[in-house]
Write a structure and sequence with these properties.
single chain, about 475 residues, 18 helices, transmembrane, Carbon starvation protein A
């Protein structure tokens, strides 16, 4: 328990120290009107309170990732918790802050436009395709996951739950953001808090010992000997660093009322997600006697089976159902905004105004038809593609943030170093994985390192401090 508390305290300290440091580097302008104030359209640009924006941001980004990912990551052993803590503070929260604040500075622009502004038109067009692909995968993953959990709690079929969740997604995607998302997320947030707090307390007072295999950070405990590098950093995305968040932050960039709230809303929400990830990683490491026992449950029903077994065992039938419902809330509240973000990105690309309902439906209906067809694929395959696409999006966003900083002669290394790390992770994974080129790990790693060196050299050749840009911004 003491190790878990130390990790949580480290995240909180990181928010107040490194989060403040990142904010000072960016330089928010409290006097500057945000898009919510200057472009209020009553649909997507709607001023909301900081507390409500924070809660929506947290629920938007905290889908199945900070639950399923850490459960799967627990197979590797306690080292997974180190990645959650340090990845969250130095990479994930930095990524989320810049993806949100750069969108604020770009009038609430979606991630492809933000990336294009700082990395060029090729990057913009690539991200238009890539971000929509990621969001479609996210939406589908966040339909199938909760549908399976709801199916385990009821006598209704998973297919029926898929239809019900899709129906909700259609509604939440096209109505004004304050009508459903703004009103019901506080209730969902209460379920989330109940789930998080009650489960860790339930573990503490149970017969299960924390970290049943000990706190050995040097050993890879994975029962099938899957390599730690780079798989751990793909497996645990949400809760450490996640490109999906770059697609969600612009939604709240269109609702926040003051730039000074950026650290609380964007950096802070990621820290909150890190705590959720720590809880589920601790449960995976502690509830089962070994990685083999955890893997056996995963083999029988995937992470959803772990969630159901852990929740009902620690909290009883009623408490377990409440906890599972809290887990179900997370993917549903991310899936609806995933499709909403996809609609907005497509609308920006095609230059289609979104105030008229008919134009929102013109994009949303074909999008949901495609999403439904994707649900027919095997869940495990979808998850693997989602993991790689997710981290690749984070890598591109971090390079865009680094370019923003270096052109303004600011301390770009806070984004450049995590961008380099994620480049090595994503390229190595693609070169080695079955969904990629299936190369031996030593060759894949060499390719990953080579790609990182090439990207870094290209970055320093292509981007330098811009004296005219610096002078212009000082006048604002």
């Amino acid at each position: 328990m003491s190790w878990f508390l130390l990790c949580v305290v480290t995240l909180i300290v990181g928010y107040f120290t490194y989060g403040t440091f990142i904010t000072k580097i960016f330089g928010p302008k409290p006097q500057k009107a945000t898009p919510a104030m200057s472009m209020n359209d009553g649909v997507d640009f709607v001023p909301l309170s900081d507390k409500k924006v924070y809660l929506i941001q947290l629920l938007n980004i905290a889908g199945l990732g900070p639950i399923f990912g850490p459960i799967l990551g627990a197979l590797y052993g306690p080292v997974a918790m180190l990645w959650i803590v340090f990845g969250c503070i130095f990479a994930g929260a930095v990524h989320d802050y810049f993806s949100g604040m750069l969108s604020v500075r770009a009038n609430g622009a979606s991630v492809p436009s933000v990336v294009g502004e700082h990395l060029g038109n090729f990057a913009k067009h690539f991200m238009n395709f890539f971000a929509v692909l990621l969001l479609m995968l996210v939406g589908v993953v966040f339909v199938l996951g909760p549908a399976k959990l709801l199916g385990s709690l009821s006598e209704m079929s998973v297919a029926l739950w898929v239809g019900i969740i899709f129906a909700y997604y259609v509604l939440a995607t096209v109505v004004p953001i304050d009508k459903i998302i703004g009103r019901f997320y506080p209730i969902f947030g209460a379920l989330l808090v109940f789930m998080s707090v009650s489960l860790i307390i339930g573990l503490a007072v149970s017969d299960h010992s924390f970290y049943s295999q000990g706190l050995d950070f040097a050993t890879n405990f994975h029962p099938t000997d899957l390599p730690l590098w780079p798989l751990l950093f793909i497996t645990i995305a949400c809760g450490a660093v996640s490109g999906f968040h770059a697609t969600q932050s612009p939604l709240m960039a269109r609702c926040m009322q003051n730039e000074k709230s950026g650290r609380f809303i964007f950096y802070g929400a990621m820290i909150g997600e890190g705590v959720i990830a720590l809880i589920w990683c601790s449960l995976g490491l502690s509830f089962y006697e070994s990685s083999d026992a955890l893997n056996q449950t995963l083999a029988n029903g995937g992470p959803a089976a772990v969630v159901h077994e852990v929740s009902t065992s620690l909290l009883g039938t009623v408490g377990g159902i409440m906890a599972v419902l809290g887990v179900i809330v997370l993917p549903i509240t991310s899936g609806d905004t995933a499709f909403r973000s996809a609609r907005l990105i497509i609308a920006d690309f095609l230059n289609i105004q979104q105030k008229p309902m008919v134009k929102r439906l013109m994009i949303a209906i074909p999008m949901f038809v495609v999403g439904f067809l994707i649900t027919k694929a095997e869940f495990g395959v979808i998850w693997r593609y989602f993991g790689w696409a997710n981290q690749t999006t984070a890598m591109i966003m971090l390079w865009a943030a680094a370019a923003y900083l270096i052109k303004r002669d600011k301390l770009h290394w806070v984004c450049t170093i995590p961008a380099m790390f994620m480049t090595a992770v994503t390229v190595t994974y693609l070169a080695n994985a079955e969904i990629g080129f299936s190369l031996p790990m030593n060759i894949a790693t060499m390719i990953g390192v080579g790609a990182t060196v090439a990207a870094t050299i290209g970055f320093f050749i292509g981007y330098k401090p811009n004296s005219q840009l610096i002078a212009n911004e000082k006048q604002l």
